[in-house]
Amino acid sequence: MTLKRTTRAAGVAAIVAAAVTVGARQQEIRITQEVMTTNPIGGQGPGGGLVPIPQGTGLILGQIVDAGSNRPVPGALVTLGLPGSRPIRALADGQGRFVFRDLPKGRFNLTATKAGFVDGAYGRMRPSGPTLPFELVDGERASGVSMALWRHAAVGGTVLDEQGEPIVGATVRVLRRQIIGGQWRLVPGTQDLTDDRGAYRIGTLEPGEYVVAVPMGQGSSALDGLLPMVDGQRDVVVSVAAVRMGVAVGGDSGIFIEGMGGNDAAGVGEDGKPLTYPTTFYPASASAARATVTKLGSGDERTNLDFQMRPVRALKISGMAVGPEGPVANLALTLVPVEAETLASALDTRTAFSNAGGAFTFPSVPPGQYLMRATRTPRIAFGAGDATIVQQGGATIMTRTATAAGAPPLPTEPTLWAEMPVSVAASDMTDLSILLRPGIRVTGIVQFDGATARPESDRLSSIAVSLEPADVRPGGPGTVRGRVEASGQFATMGVPAGRYFVRVAGAPQGWTFRGATLGGRDVTDTPMEIESGDVSGITLGFTDRPTDLSGHVQMDGASTDGASVIVFPTDQTAWVGYGSAARRLRNVRADKTGAYSVSNLPAGEYFVAAVADKTAVDWQNPAFLASLTTDAVRVRLSDGQRATQNVKVGR
Amino acid sequence: MKKNMANRAIEPLRYRAIALGYCVIGLLVAVPLAAQVVHSVDHQQRDGQATPTGTAVVSGVVVSDEATPQPIRRAQVTLTGSDQPVFKTTFTDATGRFAVTDLPAGRYSLAATKGGFVRAAYGAKRHDRPGTPVNLANGQQMTGLTLRMSRGGVIAGTIMDETGMPAVGAQVRVLQYRVQQGERVLVPATGGNPFGEVTDDRGAYRMYGLPPGEYLVSATPRNSNVGEIRASTEAEIRAALAALQQPPTPAPPAGQPLPPPREPVTVGFAPVYFPGATSVSSAASVTLASGEERGGVDFSLQLVRTAKIEGTVIVPAGFSPQNVQLTMAATGAQAAPGVLGSTFLNRVTPAADGKFSYAAVPPGQYTINARLSANAPVGRAGGGAQPEVFEFVMASGGGQTITTGPASRGGTAYWATAEVTADGTTQSNVTLALQPGMTVSGRLEFKGTRLAAPTDLTRVRVSLSPAPSATGFNVMTALPGAQIDASGRFTITGVTPGRYLVSGSAPAPAGGGPGLNWTLKSAIIKGRDVLDYPLEIAPNDELADAVLTFTDATQNVSGVLQDASGRPAPDYTIIVFAADKRYWTPQARRIRSTRPGTDGRFNVTNLPPGDYRIAAVVDIAQGEANDPAFLEQLVPASYAFTLAEGERKVQDLRIAGLPNRPL
After folding, report:
1. In the predicted structure, residue A280 carries a pLDDT above the cut 80
2. Which of A135, A428, A528, A602 counts the most CB atoms within 10 A of its CB?
3. Are the beta carbons of A61 and B208 separated by less than 8 Å?
4. Which helix (H) or strand (E) holds A204?
5. In a 3-state reduction of DSSP, which class is residue B16?
6. Taking the CA of residue B119 as centre, how many other CA atoms within 13 Å lie in the half-sphere pointing to its CB?
7. Chain A environment of B208 (Cβ under 8 Å)
8. Mutate to test the interface with A, among B77, B79, B108, B201 (most CBs of A within 10 A)
C-alpha cells in the first residue's frame, strides 16, 4: 500500500478523506489523498486561488551550478515566487542558464531543484541552510544570479539471511543524526526495498551523518498518516490495510492470518514455531545507540553496507482493548520497542488492529521490552464535499475533498488512549487487557493586544492552534489540533497525559502570535505538564507590534558575503527541550550589504552572533552555541521593541 | 504464438487462426453421463458462521521447474478458502516441504510465492491461469502435492534525462497487453512491483519476478506534474543578454499599459516508452523468456511542447459556473488504454464568468467533460479550494470509471463534452454549453415462485452504474438511485451519456427462509435486456417504459468431470456458455468457466435460465471464453442442456478422447 499526497503550498488547514473498499482479498490498493487547503485569512484573489505575478519590465538572468565543482547543472527546474501570486517555473538550459522576464518589482523567492541534487535557493550556502529573498527594483535587470545545488550522497549494500541467501523485498531505512530540540536524535529518512539479489541503494541523501537499519515489522508510517484522516469508512480501510500489510485482524473476524507475514518473516524454527528478524542496525546491532554512524559528504557513495540477518523466536501477543463503554473495535494498536524512544519517530513499531469484539493479536514479536500504545481519535465531521470514485479491477478508491473557511469543528466524542509496558520473554502472551482512557482537553481564550481592529469573529477559526508533545512518543497521537470558536474561546482534542507545547500557526492579518500562557507562565517555548483532568485558562496572546531585531554584519576589511546571524537565548537551559519549533533560536542570512533582520522574537535576553554560514551546519547544537558566546553580543528585547544591533563575524 | 497473441486486436484474421489452433490442441470432447434434474432448494446454505477449523491436512513440496527440480526453501504457501473465510499461510523448510493443518472441509485455492519467483497456483497450466481447487473432505489428509515455481525474469536498465544526466526518481513501469472485457488493454505486469519502480541516483531500475512474456517499459519523470514550465531557449537567453546592455526602463506610469509580453515556449515531461517513444503505439516490446535477465533496457526522457487550453462553460440560469466539474483526459494515441497513470487527467474549476484554463497540456487528443449537479451549492464563490494537481494513480487491472460529482444526493445533472487537440500552441475557444441529463423510467414486476411480491415497493432499490470498459474511461456525475412510487413506477433523472449497468435489490420478506431472495431477472429497456447488453444512453434519449423483473428463483449446474477410466479429471477447464450466439459478448453473464476441484467436482452458480452448452478444454487463456470465434470452435465438442427457471442441474461429464490430435 502506498500513500500519496498532493499538497498545495498556501493555506492553513488540510482536510482529507480517503476510503478504500476491495472486492478481493489480494487486490493491490493504492490510496491517493488529495490534501485540500482552506482559504487563508485575507484571501488571495477570487476563488481563494493565487493570482498571476503582475507584469513589469524587470529581468532575472542566472545560472545553476554544482556546489562541489562549480560547473553548470543543466536542466534544473527554477521556481520564482512572489507572496500571494502563482509561482512561475523555468527549465534551465544545457548550460544551467535560466531567464525570468516581464517582472514587477518585489521580494521574490527563488529556488532550484534537479533530481540527484539537494535543492538550492537564493542565498543558500549549505544544504538546507537559510535563504534570502531576491529583491528586484522597478525595471531592474539582474544578471549573474547564481544558485548552487549539492550532489546527493548514496549508501547501498545487500541483505542476506542466515544461510547467505538474499532477502527479497526487505525494507532498508536510513536514519539521520540531527539536532532536534537541542538534542541529537536519529530521524528516520528514506527507505528502499531489496531487489531479487538482496541489494538496496538509497541515493538521495543530503550530506550528513547516517545510521542504516533493517527494521522489523511493517513500516506503519503510511497507516499512521491515514488513520486520523479517514472519516466514515475507517473500519473498512483499517481491515483492508491490515490485510495488505500482512497483519492479523483480531481473532475471529472472518479473515485471520496465521503465523507470519511481511518482510520480517523468517520461516519456522526446529520446533515449528515462527521466527522473525529483529530490527538490525548496521553492521549487526540490535540497538541504534551501538550502530555505526556513516558520515557522508556531497557526492559520497558507500555501497558496502551489507547485512546478515539472524532470526529470533517470534512470539504471539494477544488481548482485548477495552474503553469506558466496553470493547473498542477497529483500533490500531502499536508495539514500540522501548529503545525507539530515543529515535525521533517510530522506526520499528508493529501494528495490530482490534476486531469487532475488541480482540487484537500481534502475531510475531521478538522478545524484548515494549510499550503498547493505542489512540482512538474521534471522527472529524466533514461538510458535503466532492466525491471522486475510481473503480478499477476489484478495488474502488474514493477520494473525498471538503473545504471549509477554517478548521472543522471539533468532534464531541472524547479521544481514547492507552499506554502499557509489555515485557515479551520466552512464551506467547494471551489475555492482555489494554484499558483506554478519555484524553485530556485543553481550553482557553484568544487575546488581542493592540490598537489594530480585533479580527472579525468568523475569522478566528482560521487560527490553527495545536498541542505538540514535548517528548518523543512513537505510536502516540503526535500533534493534535484544536479550534478557536467565534466567541474567542478555544479547545483542543483530547490528548494522553504528558508534556505539551501550545503551538499556533497562522494569525489574522495585522496580528502576530506572541505566545501562549497559563497562569502567566509561557507554554509555547517551555512545555506544560498535563497529568489528569482538563486544563483550562490558557491565553493565546496576539500583538500588532511584533518584537523585531535587525542590524548589519560587519567584518574588518573583508566581505560579509556568505555570512549569517544566529540569535539564541543567553539562558543556556533554553537551548534544549523547545520541541520542533525553535522560536527563540534563529538563523538568518545577512544579505549582500550585510543587513539582517529577525522578526517576531519572544521578549527576553539574547546572544547575537555572526558566522560564515557554511560553518553553521547543526547550529542548534548546544556545543556550537556555547562556542559562539565569546564573540556574541548580548541584547535584551522587551515586548513590541524594534531593536537594532550590529554584530561582527567571530573568529 | 506469444507474439501473435499480443497483436490480436489489430490482426483479427491471424487471431482466428490461433484460436483454431488452440482449440484443436486444447479441446476434448465431453460426453454426458447420467443427467439428473433436481428441482429443489439448496439445503446446504450456511447462515450461521461457524468457527472455520477442522482436522484436514494439506501437505507437499515446493520445487523449482528445472529439469532436475530443486527444493525451494522458505517459499510462502497460502491456502485460501473459496466458500468460507479461511486463510492460512506457512513457509517451506530447507527441503521445500510444507504442511497446513487444522483445516475444515471445503474448497480451497493453494498457491506459493517467494521473492524473485513467479507466483505458482497449484495445478495451474501457466502462471496466468487459475489453479485446481483443492476439495477437502472432513479430516482428509491430502499429502504429496507438488507446486513448481520458476524464477522470475528481470528487466533492468538506465533512464537518462533530456540533458544526458541520470534521470533520478523517474517512475518505471513494466506493462503488458491483456484482454479485458473483450478489449486489448495495457496493464501492469504481474510479479515484481505492480506500481513499478523508481530509478535510483544513477538512473538505474530493476524489475524482477516477471513471468515470461512480452512487455513494454515506460518511464514517467519526477517533474511530470508541476504545471507550466517555461523553456530557457537560446532566443530567450539572447534577448535577456541584449536587454542587459540597455539602460533600465521602469514600468510606465499608471494608466499606460505595458506592451503584451511575448508568449513563452512551455515544455513538459510526458511518459516515455522504451526505446524512446512518447506514444504507446510506437513503443517497442521486450520479450522475456522464463527466468531471463534482460539488462540494458535503457532509454531517455524527452521534453514535449505543451499548450494552454482555454474556454468557457455556459450554465443554465440560476447556476454558478464555479460548481461545474471539468475533467480532461487523454483519448488519443498518446494515451495507454487501461493504464491510469498514463492518462493525463486533470480537473479544474471555472471562474465566476465561466472561463477555465488548462496549462501545460502535452500534445495529443483530449476529451473535456463538464458535469453539474442540480443541487450543487450555489453561491460558494470565493470559498472553494481548487485542486492544483489532480493526479490519478495506477491500480492493477484495466477498465476505469471515474465518477465525479457532489457526494450528496443527486438531481437533474447537466453535462457537456468537447474534444480538443493540443499541439503546443494556445487554444482559447473551447465552449462547453451544459444541457440537462436524460431520464430513464419504467415499472417493476415481481415474479415469485415461493415469495409474495413486497408490499412496500418504495423500499426497492434500482440504480444505474457505469459499465466497466477496458479502454478509455467514463466520466459521469455520481448517480442518484431511482425514485420509486407505491405503484412500482421508477424514475432515474439526470443521467449523462454513457454505457451503464442496471442493478436492483428488493427486501426479502421476513421468514422467507435461507437462500430465498429477490434478484433482478431481466431489465428490458427498448426491447433489449440490459442485463445481457450494457445500456447505451445517448444525448436526448428519453428511455421510458422500461420493465425490471425480479425473481426468487436461482439456477446452477454442477457435476463431476471424469477421465475415460472414471477417475476425477481436475486438469481441465469447464466452460458453460449460452447456446444462442447473440449472448456471446465480452461481459456476458451467460458465459462462465471454472476449474474442477481435485475431486473433479465443479459448480457453476447464478446462471440465468436458458439453453446452454457445456464443454471441457485442456487450457484456456484469460478472456478467451468470451471470444465468439473460440466458442464457435467449441460447439461441436460440447453438450447442450437447458436450465429451467429454478433448476439445479446435475451434469456429470466424462472425457471421451482427443479428436484429431495434431501434435
Report:
1. yes
2. A528
3. no
4. strand A199-205
5. helix
6. 15
7. 168, 195-196
8. B201
Give me the amino acid identity at A588.
V
Residue A57: CB atoms within 10 A of its CB come to 22
Separation CA B123–CA B135 (nearest Å): 13
Report yes or no: B550 and B531 within 8 Å, Cβ to Cβ: no
Q: Using alpha carbons only, how large is chain A's radius of gyration in Å?
A: 26
CA torsion through residues B521, B527, B528, B534, sign: negative
Closest CB to A393: pick one of B76, B164, B397. Answer: B397
Amino acid identity of residue A293, one-letter, is: V
Task: Evaluate if residue B18 carries a pLDDT over 50.
Answer: no
B/e letters for A295-325, b = 16+ CB within 10 Å, e = fewer, are: ebebbebbeebebebebbbbbbbbbbbbbee
3-state secondary structure A332-374: EEEEEEHHHHHECCCCCCEEEECCCCCEEEEEEECCEEEEEEE
Distance of CA B305 to the CA centre of its chain: 32
Return the residue matching grid coordinates 543587513: A595
Q: How far apart are CA A356 and CA A339, in angstroms?
A: 32
Q: Which of A33-37, B276-280, B530-534 has the highest mean pLDDT?
A: B530-534
**CA nearest A190 in B: which residue?**
B200
Of all residues in chain A, the one with the smallest CA distance to B203 is A116
Q: Which residue reads 464443454 in cell numbers?
A: B615
Bridge partners for A610 per DSSP = A565, A649
CB–CB of A434/A418 below 8 Å? yes
The residues, ordered by sequence, that sit 6+ positions from B286 with a Cβ below 8 Å of its Cβ are B155, B214, B215, B216, B217, B274, B294, B297
User: Residue B352 and residue B315: Cα distance in Å, rounded?
Assistant: 11
> How many contacts, defined by CB atoms under 8 Å, are there between A and B?
273
For A355, A590, B48, the CA distances from B52, given in Å and listed in that order, are 16, 71, 11
Q: How far apart, in whole angstroms, are the C-alpha atoms of residue A431 and residue A429?
A: 7
- Please check whether residue A602 is in contact with residue A525, taking contact to mean a CB–CB distance below 8 angstroms: yes
Beta strands in A437-585 (DSSP E): 437-438, 442-449, 464-469, 480-484, 489-492, 498-505, 512-518, 521-522, 528-530, 535-543, 548-554, 563-569
* Sequence-separated (6 or more) residues with CB below 8 Å from residue A197: A158, A166
**Per-residue 3-state assignment (H helix, E strand, C coil) for A160-190:** ECCCCCECCCCEEEEEEEEEECCEEEEEEEE
- Among A215-219, A505-509, B377-381, name the most confident range: A505-509
User: Which cell is A196 given?
Assistant: 531479487
| Spatial distance between the Cα atoms of B249 and A56, rounded to a whole number of angstroms | 10
**Does the structure show a pLDDT above 60 at A30?**
no
Say what the pTM is: 0.80
Q: Where are the beta strands (DSSP E) in B233-296?
A: 266-269, 272-273, 286-288, 293-294
**Quick one: cell of B156?**
533492468
Q: Give dist(CA B495, CA B474) in Å, integer.
A: 13
Measured distance CA(B68)–CA(B63) in Å, rounded: 9
How long a stretch of residues is chain A?
A: 651
DSSP 8-class letter at A228: G
Residues of B in contact with A141 (CB under 8 A): 240, 243-244, 246, 248
d(CA B414, CA A387): 17
Longest dimension (CA), chain A: 81
Q: Predicted ipTM?
A: 0.81
Give the three cell numbers for residue B211.
513471468
Asked if omega into A283 is within 30° of 0 (cis), the reply is yes
Structure-derived torsion over alpha carbons of residues A20, A26, A28, A34, reported in degrees to the nearest 10: 10
Q: How far is A398 from chain B (nearest CA, A)?
A: 9
Core vs surface per residue B108-119: b (16+ CB within 10 A) or e: bbbbbbbbbbbb
